[in-house]
Specification:
- The protein is mainly alpha-helical.
- It is built from three helices and no strands.
- The longest helix is centred in the middle third of the chain and has 21 residues.
Length: about 70
Amino acid sequence: MNGILEFNLPEENDDFQAALNGHNYKSAIWDFDQLLRSEMKYKELSDETYKAFEWCRIELRKILEQDNLFIEQ
């Protein structure tokens, strides 16, 4: 099976760049999530900071899931 994406350049350059860099975006989001996780797991955080980081991780997943995106895949 093959998949081919076609873009009319330069008019669709933004869409082309988004498709080309999709993996980089996913990797950056994963790295940010893991940074929050590490801070929560290994640092001594105030309850307020811990809850804020936890909220960020939950909201990040909600936003991604709205567009059928999952960083664990």
